Amino acid sequence: MGIFSRKTSVLSAGLLHGAADRHSHILWGVDDGVQTPEESLGILSFLESAGLRSLWLTPHTAEDMPNTTAALKARFSELKAAYGGQMELHLASEYMLDTLYEKHLAEKDLLTMEDDMVLVETSTWNPPINMEELLRDTMSAGYRPLLAHPERYRYMEEDDYSRLTDMGVKLQLNLPSLLGFYGDTARKKAGMLLKKGMYTFWGSDCHRMASLRRQYDTKELNPKLGSLLELLK
Questions:
Q1: What is the side-by-side order of every strand in the sheet holding 94-96?
Q2: Of 7, 35, 62, 114, whose CB has the highest number of CB atoms within 10 Å?
Q3: Which pLDDT score, from 0 to 100, does residue 1 have?
Q4: d(CA 179, CA 211)
Q5: Are 147 and 170 in contact (CB under 8 A)?
Q6: What angle do CA 137, 139, 144 make, to 5 degrees?
Q7: pTM of the complete model beyond 0.85
Q8: What is the pLDDT of residues 37-71, one digit of tens each?
Q9: Nearest Cα to 227, choosing from 75, 49, 15, 27?
Q10: φ, ψ of residue 171 in degrees (nearest 5)
Q11: Which residue positions in the chain have pLDDT lower than 50?
């Protein structure tokens, strides 16, 4: 796909065709995302019709949302049984870097993506005091950290991103950031990181059908960044 002549939408650009969404909250009733099986199935149908190849369901696991691995696996089995479509569905979790994460890590009780890659996050405003230590402990335990939506972290600057990637941490873009859904600062950071080739994957971070449709229909995608996004499929 060539560079578009003007701003376009994700759907119009065909960016979902054959792509993998690495971050979503579509598994119903387990966190602050989708709450009903009907909405979960509606979103899956919408994404499949848009051409998405693979979707990772990554519900929160944190001190204030203490999901267990067993409970998430059980709900995921229910969703797969109800879905019956052709899109590839996978289960992982988005772990807040907190004391509960330390417990899961010590017990090697983490829901991961392929190659033992684990999706992690911090608060928007402040990192945990022992953030780099936790990331190094994660790698020492044989896992590969994937940092969710780094462009949204107000405390991070370009040098911080470089230091993390030099450590071996992968970065995951939130697609709405490029469209201005989290404000101008996150949009600029996302554009910078994408142009520098510092992202490895992208995700929608979908929590609701309405926001997902708005995200993919809005004509705010910069054409050059749209072309770079194709490299993350």
A1: 60-61, 94-96, 117-121, 144-148, 170-174, 201-203
A2: 62
A3: 39
A4: 12
A5: yes
A6: 135
A7: yes
A8: 999 999 999 999 999 999 999 999 999 999 999 99
A9: 15
A10: -115, 135
A11: 1-4
